[in-house]
Every structure is written in C-alpha cells, then in structure tokens.
Design a protein that fits this description.
Oligomer: single chain
CATH superfamily of the largest domain: Response regulator
CATH class of the largest domain: Alpha Beta
CATH architecture of the largest domain: 3-Layer(aba) Sandwich
Number of domains: 6
Distance between the termini: 56 Å
Number of strands: 40
Shape: globular
CATH topology of the largest domain: Rossmann fold
C-alpha cells in the first residue's frame, strides 16, 4: 500500500510530497519514486534519502523520558541497585534502537542503575503483547523491589504500568512513554499519582506538525532554502501540566452547561458532572436494559453498548456500567436502577424498559437534577428524556406485512387466515407492530381473514424464551388448523418457526416477525419463516450510549426527539436482504450438520498438486490427536499434500512454524495454536509473500487473516443445560435448589460462553427459578441459585471444592453443569462419597471416552455435549480447498454440537469394548515395589498437588516412592532418569516437559 500511495501521488501530478513511511528497508524505494519524478519531499518520523527529514530526535525524546524516570526514582529515594529498568521497543522498526538507547541514557544520567538491571529483551511485536509479557517478567522476577518502565509509545507504556499495578508494584514503580496520545492523556487526567504507575509521556505535539510540514514543502517549491532535517521541540506531559497542554475536550458544550432539549425545554448539567468534565475526572455512563438474558435481545443490546463504550473511553475520560435484570422484570429493574443512582457517580443514563410508565418519575427526577437521559428500544414519551432511539414500530410492522404479502402472492402460497402473537400483548410497541403488519398485509391482500386484532395479541411467552413460544404456539396451531400464518412481534418468531417445523407443516403454515439469529436465518432458508425485520437492538443501544458521550464531551444535543432508524427486512425475496448477506454482515456462521459431509468427504474438491500446511496445537493430547488423524485421512482422500508442524502450545514456536510454511510456499494454512496474543504477528508471517493466502484458524480466532472454524460455545453449553433442565422437569418438576457451574476461569471467553450457555439451557426449560443476572458473568452471583466453582479443569482439583460445596448445602436438589467431563466426574464422585446421588443431576462438555460408561449406566448423568474432534478434518480440508479455489465459504464455520445421552451414545460411540475404562483399583500391592517419581517442577501448586496425591496413594498401597525433581531443565531431567535407574526402581512415574527429549528420556 505504501508503494501504491507513492505511485498514486506521482500519477496525480503532485507538485510536492509529505510522506510517512515506517516500513524499514523500503526508504530508498519510496524516496526514489519521488526523486525520480522530480518532486520535493518531506518525510516525517523516519528519514528518507533525498527528502527533508522532519520529526523529533528519537534518542533525545526517549532521553527526556529516561531523565523523568531517573529523577522520579531519586525523589522516591530508591536504591539504584534494587531498581529494575524495563525498556519496551520493537527491534525491526528503524527508529526503535534510538528510542531504546535514549531512554537508558536518560535514566543513567541521573540514576546510576547497574547494567544488569536493564532489561531490553522482552519480546514485543504488537501492542497487545505488552501486558502479558510484562506479567511474565514479574513472575520471573519475584524479588524485584522497584521498577522503572519505558514504552517506545504510549500504549506499551500504559499497558506496562497496568501490568505492574496488577503485579502489586503500586508505589514501587513508575512508567513513562512517548507520544502524548489519548491512552496516556486519559490516564494522566483521570487518575492520581497514588492510583497510577504511569507518570509521564513525552509529547511530539503531532497537532502542530502541519505548522512545519506544509511551509517546508512550499518553501522548496518556491526555491527557498530548507534544512536537510527539521527537529521540532518535545515536552514531558505530566499530571502537573496535562490540563494546560491538553485540556479535556469540552467540544461545543454550551456556556455553564446550558442546553435546549429537542422538545424545547431548558436543561442545565449538574454541578458535579460539570466539575468532573472541567477537571478531567472520569465521568460514568450507565446503560441499563430490562432483560440482559432475553435471547437475541439482551446479547445484542450488550454488544451495542460495549461498542459505544469502547469508542468513547478510547477518546474521553469516561467509564461505563451495564446493568439490568435478566428477564424483563420492571420491579427488579427499578430496584437496580435506584440502588445504582443512590450510590452516586452516574453522569448520564441510556435507558430501556417495559412497561415505560414505571420509570417516568425517575427519569424526570434525574433530568431535573442535571443528568442527561436517553431512551432506546421502548420509549418513555411522558417523561423528560431527551431522545428515543428505536424503530417507528407502526411503520416497521407495515413494511413486514407488505413484504410478507408480496411473497405470498409471488409464490402462490395458500394464506387465508392469520393470527397475531407477541411476548407483550399490552405493550404499545407490540400493538403498533401488529397493527402495522395487518395494515401492510391487507394493503396487498384485502380479503384476508384475521384470527385476532392488534389489541388482543396472543401471549406466547412470559420470560421471552424460544421454548416457551414453541410450547404455546405448537398446541395453538394444532387446535386452529385454519390458521395459515402466525405473525410474531419479537424473537418468538424463532419459536413459531420451530413449532411449524416440528409439526411437519413446513410449506403449509408460515410465520413472519422481528429479530435475527442464526436459527431464524435457517428457518427462513427452510421455508418456515417468510420475513423477519432486524430492528438493530445493538444499534439502538449504541446510539443511546453514544448520545451520552456526544453531549458530555462534544456539547451535542440531538436535534430530534426521534432520530430516524429503519429496520432491515430479511427474506429470500426481491427487494430484501438475503440470509446469506445477513450472515456475512452479522457474522452468523452456517450451523453445519455433523454428518453432512459423510457422503462426499471432499465436497467435490481435488487437492492434486496443492500443498497445505497444518500447525498442530500439540502432540500427545487425545483430542488434538484425533483432529490430526482425521485431517490426514481426509487429505489423503482428497489427494492433498499436508506439511505438518507442531506448535507445542507455544506462541513463539507457532511463529517460527509460520515462517517455515511461508518459505515452503504452501497454498494454504490450517492453524491450531493457543496464543491469541500473537495472532496479528502470526498472520503477518503467514501472509508475508501472499496477502491473500487462505488461512483457517481452529478453535482460537485469528481475525487478522483467518476463517474461524470451531465450537459454537454458547450453543454447546445450552445443549447440556437443556438436557439437565429437561431431566429436572420430568423428575423434580423443575425443583432445582442450586445450580453449580464447574468452570476454569482462566480459560476466559470460552469458559464464560459455555458456562453461561449451560445455565441458559436450564433456564430455557425451567424458567421460574432465581437465576439472577447470571449473564453478567462474575465469580460470585448474589441473589442467584447459581454457584460458580473454579475447578481447575481436572477431577482431582475439582473434587475437594465440589465436596465442600455439597457438604455446605445438605438436602438440596443440585444441578451440576461442567466445562468438561473430568470435573463432571469429580462432582459425581463427591456425591457418591456423601451418599447424595439421588439429589444431584449432571451435564458436561466433551463427550470424551472417560464419560461414556457413566452416561450409559447412571441415569442422573444426563449427557455430555460432543465436539467430534474425530470429524474436524471433514470440515477444514474441504474448506481450505474451497478457499484456495476462490469459492465462497462461511466465516465463521461452526460445529453443530450434539448432546450425547444414554439414548444415542451407541449410535456415535458403540460399546465395542474400546470404551471400557481401566479401573484405578487402589488396593494393597502384592509386594513393596519401588517406584521412581520424576516431578515436573517442584514448588508450583499444580505439581505439588500431584506429588501429594502420589505420596498419599503410595502409602495406602504400600509401595515406596523414589523422588527426583526434573525442574523443567534438560540436564536435571536426564540426571533424574539415570538416578531412578541406578536406584533399581521397579517402575516409573515421570513428568518431562522439555520438548525434543521424549525419545531420550523414554529410552532411558
């Protein structure tokens, strides 16, 4: 692109050039493009031969930051010998060595830190790897007393400070950087020195660059003398001067916070909020919704609010809060809102609720007190709110009705009688949609008969779940066979479509409605749903939240009470957006049937002459081994050559493998690697020679370059939860007293999606339990029957935690949903030990061989969600071949999971003896055997737990343990192996984590 820009400037017959090129090694090429064309040029922040160089002296600028850090350390009275200096820089960027050396020189000039205490070797490729790298450094330096940190630019500097804060260095560390960009200024304005480790940024004043760059080019064009290098001045920006140099941006805010609202009323911003804005203290914006867990709606609202918050907080001194009850409970919403407002600190409110009347007094009180309030989705028209962000419900319903009728006419469908349904019959929004639909449909087909009108909508759900609608509409359609179309006002249209499909009436009965999900799109393709309108819940929440930022920081009051928002009409018909278009726009992947590829594994693709690389997660892991074996099988069937490399659970290894793949000139890459922080750098490596190289990422997203293939995590969780919920409904009448989610918190988003999905699945069946706000994931859920346990992922680590929880809750009926099968087995063992088997029901994730026998024999272990690693190759091999051949593929491509139960397990995993688990029979040994034990690494909690367990069981079985610590060191590991042999051990337990030494050690 840089070369294209240079050529484009020449082609446009420019008279002169201002250019910024930061691609090391291309300076001669780019400068030559201009000098060959006879154009005078100024390059900024990177010298180019033949061009005037403009920009700060990188060494001198970094020296200023170093001087600041050194002086700060002196002021604190720190001992140089007990102080570490971290220098963050990127080796392959031309200006970086000067910044590195300047920062060190500045510190040393005033603070005599030893060379051994200077750390320049932290690997750094992208901004998002600074935080984990500094965290790793802290772990590796447990005795560090004081730390100084220099960031080559502001984001690394701020991230280094945050990592040090979380590492416990507040008061013992200081960070500074270069740039004076928003992330640094927000910290300096919004936090005190006592709260923050970040202390200063060196400003290059980029907002003044034009004052130098444009006159320099004009002077050269007009024959005046210009020096070869122009160096602007720089200055430290600290908390002492940030408000003078970079005052908080109040934009066009009216004098004294006075505004005129869209309705013509006067409004004065509260004194507290005005003072925050004037001082640079963070303001807080609250987005609240009545139904965080309502399917489709709650998730999309949160998405939009988060988008607005991310955009706003990246520019302004602000923070956001998101709140609301899980299931449309206006009393709970009022209680939550009043509690948050009573706690103080909220400066603007973006609000949604139904019914709206309960919030009028609250809104008016807050507006009168100087708080801006915007509403979205459902209006509160009788209040003093400023603006409402939503559809025109009547017009949107009319459009859906017209489109539906046109499809009926165009396809000759037999629709004579229509029923109207909703989740909120009394809601004005719902009545408007039903009235509009009837008007729009009647406009095209005036003789249509109507089962009911918009004032008597059929209530299909109380808690807004799809299953409720299925359970309501199915019997209604059976009892009213003359109804040919059931219009639904909200996400219940999905339930209507499922009810039609389940009754086998596709093509006879139809539905249309509102909202979008992957399932709704499938039902449109299947013919059950004719039309849906995406009302943009995310856009509504985003606009209302953004309105808060715009008013507080830019002084912009909306011009209209009802800013225009149009629905997106989705149908496979002329004039509407197709399902494929919406999948592309919204990121809904095709939900693939697990057996869809069985008949033609290659899907018509031929890999002859092609070479595809596969970066494996790690050898020796059963799940991963099944993936690799299936890829080999399918590749062989499709005549495709596979180049294999083991990523070994390590980001740096994956990067090195990527370089090798590039050198080998592969036609595509299937990547399975765990370190998401390097995905940008990895994509750069893979596409170094071909910017369009097809890449697939398995299970861990690589959005910079790769199609995502893997688990549909929320749905996988729901399947297990629905199975548990159905069992509880049939056996306990949904009388669940407690839900335990066995999780692994460290896994992050995958853990949250699967665990919350599991609870949501139970809720889909047993809707009347006290779930609380479980969708707002937190380790502890107050006011909820949900208890989250960080079980560590293994049976041994989870067992004592579950045992304690069961013991503390005697007599309760407990539903356990686990992130994996191992922890599910831990819960089963704990219940058996306490004799409470009849009071616990289980569901888990994985469907590994370890759980098969339990599912077959234990009626309380409902099932486990399958991920079919043995079939991954049947997806990714045809996908990569299609990508290489330029064919369209779905991104993301998601697995269609299945709950493996006693009813279907033999269809997928036949009981042929292979699944029979070895039984760990803990009994007295026949003699006192000597067992060598090579510990992986003594002193860390995980391995110490293993060692304690080994010693305990060895004593119980009457055998001796010959202990040795491998210490994750190759030499010590070999010494341990030889020592165990020399001690004449009878057998060995060994943990060796030094890659490449497996044959050597096992041979010993």
């Amino acid at each position: 692109k840089t070369l294209q820009c240079a050529n484009l400037i020449v082609a446009q017959e420019a008279d002169g050039v201002i250019f910024a090129n930061w691609i090391g090694g291309t300076e001669d090429l780019i400068a030559g493009t201009f000098t060959d064309a006879g154009l005078p040029c100024v390059s900024y922040d990177g010298p180019h031969p033949g061009c005037v160089a403009f920009g700060p002296d990188n060494f001198a600028s970094a020296r200023e930051a170093g001087l600041y850090l050194g002086r700060y350390a002196n002021e604190q009275g720190w001992d140089p010998a007990a102080t570490e200096l971290i220098v963050l820089w990127v080796p392959d960027v031309p200006v970086m060595p000067a910044r590195r050396d300047g920062s060190i020189a500045g510190v040393k000039e005033v603070f005599d830190i030893p060379d051994d205490n200077v750390h320049v070797d932290l690997p750094h490729k992208a901004n998002d790897d600074v935080f984990p790298n500094v965290t790793d450094w802290i772990t590796a330096h447990p005795n560090a007393e004081n730390v100084l940190c220099f960031g080559h630019s502001d984001q690394p500097g701020v991230d280094c400070a945050l990592a040090l804060e979380q590492g416990g260095f507040l008061g013992r560390a200081a960070a500074a950087s270069l740039g004076a960009s928003d992330e640094a200024l927000v910290d300096l304005r919004g936090r005190t020195d006592e709260e923050s480790i970040f202390k200063a940024t060196i400003s290059f004043f980029p907002e003044r660059y034009g004052e130098y760059l444009v006159p320099a080019v004009v002077d050269m064009l007009e024959g005046k003398s210009v020096p070869d290098a122009i160096v602007p001045s720089v200055s430290p920006v600290t908390r002492a001067n940030v408000h003078d140099l970079y005052p908080a941006d109040d934009g066009d805010q009216a004098s004294d916070g006075e505004y005129t609202t869209p309705s013509g009323d006067s409004f004065t911003l509260s004194a507290d909020t005005a003072a925050k804005l004037a001082s640079g203290e963070k303001v807080k914006i609250l987005t609240i919704v009545n139904g965080t867990a309502i399917p489709i709606f709650g998730e999309q609202v949160r998405l939009g609010a988060d988008r607005a918050c991310d955009a706003g907080t990246s520019k302004y001194a602000a923070e956001c809060q998101f709140a609301g009850p899980p299931q449309g409970d206006v009393v709970e919403l009022v209680n939550q809102l009043e509690a948050i407002l009573a706690a103080g600190g909220i400066d603007c409110l973006a609000l949604q609720t139904f019914p709206p009347g309960a919030l009028v007094d609250i809104v008016d009180r807050e507006v009168d007190g100087g708080m801006p309030v915007f509403t979205y989705n459902v209006d509160i028209p009788d209040s003093k709110r400023f603006a409402q962000y939503a559809l025109n419900e009547l017009a949107a319903g009319t459009l859906v009705g017209q489109t539906t009728a046109n499809i009926v006419v165009a396809n000759g469908l037999d629709v004579k009688k229509i029923a109207l349904g909703t989740g909120d019959p009394a809601g004005q929004w719902a009545q408007d949609r039903m009235e509009g639909f009837r008007a729009g449909f009647t406009e095209v087909l005036p003789d249509t008969e109507w089962h009911n009108d918009h004032l008597s909508g059929i209530q299909t759900a109380v808690n807004w779940t799809v299953q409720e609608t299925v359970d309501t509409v199915g019997p209604f359609l059976a009892a009213n066979p003359d109804v040919d179309l059931f219009f639904h006002t909200d996400q219940g249209v999905e339930g209507v479509g499922i009810a039609i499909r389940d009754q086998g009436r596709t093509g006879e009965v139809f539905t249309s409605g509102f909202n979008t999900s992957a399932q709704i799109l499938e039902l449109i393709d299947g013919g059950e749903i004719l039309v849906t309108a995406d009302q943009g819940f995310d856009n509504q929440a985003e606009l209302a939240t953004t309105a808060c930022f715009d008013l507080l920081f830019e002084g912009e009051m909306p011009a209209d009470e009802y800013p225009a928002m149009d629905p997106v009409i989705i149908a496979n018909a002329p004039g509407a957006r197709s399902t494929d278009e919406i999948r592309d726009v919204m990121g809904f992947g095709d939900v693939i049937d697990e057996t869809a590829l069985a008949d033609d594994v290659c899907q018509g693709q031929d890999g002859s002459g092609l070479k595809v690389a596969y970066g494996d997660l790690a050898t020796g892991i059963p799940f991963v081994t099944q993936v690799w074996e299936n890829i080999q099988e399918v590749a062989a069937a499709c005549n495709l050559e596979i180049v294999y490399a083991d990523n070994n659970l390590d980001g740096e290894t994956a990067l090195e493998n990527a370089r090798t793949f590039t050198l080998q000139g592969v036609d595509g890459v299937i990547q399975f690697q765990i370190d998401q922080t390097i995905e940008g750098a990895l994509c750069d490596e893979l596409r170094a020679n071909d910017p369009d190289l097809p890449v697939i990422a398995i299970d861990i997203a690589h959005p910079s370059c790769a199609l995502f293939f893997g688990a549909n995590n929320p749905r996988a969780g729901e399947l297990a939860g629905e199975g548990v919920g159905q069992w509880a409904k049939e056996n306990w009448d949904c009388g669940i007293d407690m839900i335990i989610t066995l999780e692994t918190f460290e896994v992050g988003d995958v853990n949250v999606m699967r665990s919350n999905g599991s609870v949501r699945g139970i809720q889909n069946v047993c809707s009347d339990l006290a779930y609380g706000d479980f969708e707002e994931w937190a380790p502890e859920q107050s006011g909820s029957i949900v208890t989250r346990i960080n079980g560590g992922g293994t049976t041994d680590s989870a067992f004592p935690l579950v045992l304690d929880t069961f013991t503390a809750n005697p007599g309760k009926r407990i539903a356990v949903v686990s992130l994996n099968d191992d922890m599910g087995l831990a819960a089963l063992a704990a219940a058996e030990e306490l004799g409470i088997e009849d009071n616990v029901v289980y569901g888990s994730q994985g469907a590994d061989a370890t759980i098969h026998d339990t599912i077959r024999t234990n009626s309380h272990y409902v099932g486990s969600t399958a991920y079919f690693p043995e079939a991954y190759g049947t997806y990714v091999v045809p996908l990569i071949l299609k990508m290489i051949n330029g064919e369209s593929v779905e991104d993301p491509t998601l697995l269609d999971h299945l709950l493996i139960t006693a009813d279907n397990i033999d269809d997928y995993y036949p009981a042929d003896g292979a699944d029979e688990a070895w039984v760990n029979d803990i009994r007295p040994a026949t003699q006192r055997w000597k067992i060598g034990y090579g510990d992986g690494y003594a002193g860390i909690p995980f391995t110490d737990s293993v060692t304690d367990s080994i010693n305990e069981i060895a004593a119980e079985m009457g055998v001796d343990i010959l202990y040795c610590d491998n210490a994750v060191d190759q030499e010590k590991t070999l010494q341990c192996a030889n020592l165990i042999v020399a001690q004449e051990a009878d057998g060995v337990i060994f943990a060796n984590w030094i890659g490449g030494t497996e044959d050597l050690i096992a041979g010993t």
